[in-house]
Amino acid sequence: MVESSLYEKLAKLFENEMNLILSKSILGTTDAVSLTKFVDDFCKTYLKSEVGECLYAGLSVGVSFGLKLKNGQEIFLKINKPNNDDSIAQCSFEGMNAISRVQEKLSEYKFPCPKIIMPPIEYRDVIVTVNSYEDIGTQKDAHNPSIRKVIAEKYAELIKLTNPYINTDGFKYFNFYKNEKLFPAPHNALFDFNKAGTAATWIDNIASRSKEIINSIPENLVLGHCDWSLKHFRFINDEIVMIYDWDSLSLQDEYHLLGIAASTFTTTWDIPVKITPSQNEAYEFVREYENVRGKKFTKEELMKISACSTYIMAYTARCELAVDPNNNNFEGSFRQALSKMVGDNYLGI
């Protein structure tokens, strides 16, 4: 079969129960045969070629494939399900189109992101994006100060580059901190926050205090990548040569985005490193970003950044607890980092 490599990768993925849950929530199916046909039909219809080889397959917020087509073209195809809930990972066709236009500009500026092969397509109740497949470089340990510095500085550079496109049609600001619920809807089907009960009370108390501070300080809207974490970075020596996951580009509060980045820039499960930054590392990340930003943060802005960082760590801790209710994997987790936090916010401000 032409699609055998793709089918085999999917069949292997579907041996994992979590992947079955994710596939069902995104595509409504866990059948490797029908999903293989879905991808091949799309490629034949829109790219005029059958799938030859599957170079990569993975599931998270979306379903992603690195594919080599029979015509020799290598693509990265991602399937996302539209949603209109209060999720931390909102997705709409209009929003994906806006992302595509800005990503195309970033690529023209030689910013390290994949090229756009075609604009997003609404296809059988989902949204399909097609980028160039960029398998380049390696991951590096972001606990290394020089790697941390380049990740922080690259983020400030991104915010500057995207500033002219902040009013692009399709971007919509969503402030989930104003929601009455403590947390937004989890970003994928694996995380049920209702299961934890009183085991999550200490985490929720931290999040609640942080949220109160966040809502007391005005925002500064920018276009930024809301998952600026090590898992999406590839390096040659100490230079960033590729950054992935551009459906995470969103119109958001700069202090919120920087808070996410400061608390997750070390996060990856692909190489053996600690996924959480120390409090000092998170603080230094913000200062290194600030140096390239060109304008100092006020004390109040730093308080908000730290509150956002702390809140996101609490959100992530809740995600961990949802799939690890007995804390079997507590060591090195966001739960552990929060439990050892000195002071009432992660940047110590």
UniProtKB/TrEMBL annotation:
InterPro entries: Kinase-like_dom_sf. SUPFAM superfamilies: Protein kinase-like (PK-like) (SSF56112). This is Aminoglycoside phosphotransferase domain-containing protein. It comes from Clostridium yunnanense. The lineage of its organism: Bacteria, Bacillati, Bacillota, Clostridia, Eubacteriales.
